[in-house]
């Protein structure tokens, strides 16, 4: 990865962390924000892409997928979702 692409990925990570803390519901802010702060800095670019796609989904759907109330759609059944499902925030 070049310095330019690393800087771009770092900028994306920072933007996604901000978006994760500002989802719209307190539960999702806490869950996604704490997950993003902990995991995004070390996720691969492909995993960052998968996480970013997840942020375009509606909060109630994502919340139900994470809690296992609804099956995770194939396009979001990724290692990132597995990490999210195991994530605990304090």
UniProtKB/TrEMBL annotation:
Keywords, ordered alphabetically: Chaperone
Matching InterPro entries: SDH, SDH_sf
Pfam families in the cross-refs: Sdh5
GO biological process: tricarboxylic acid cycle
Protein family (similarity comment): Belongs to the SdhE FAD assembly factor family.
Protein name, per record: FAD assembly factor SdhE
UniProt organism field: Aerophototrophica crusticola
């Amino acid at each position: 990865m070049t310095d330019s692409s690393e800087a771009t990925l770092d900028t994306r990570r920072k933007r996604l962390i901000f978006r994760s803390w500002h989802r719209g519901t307190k539960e999702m802010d806490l869950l996604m924000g704490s997950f993003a702060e902990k995991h995004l800095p070390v996720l691969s670019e492909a995993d960052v892409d998968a996480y970013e796609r997840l942020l375009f989904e509606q909060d109630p759907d994502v919340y139900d997928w994470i809690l296992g109330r609804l099956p995770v759609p194939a396009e979001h059944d990724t290692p990132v979702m597995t990490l999210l499902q195991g994530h605990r925030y304090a």
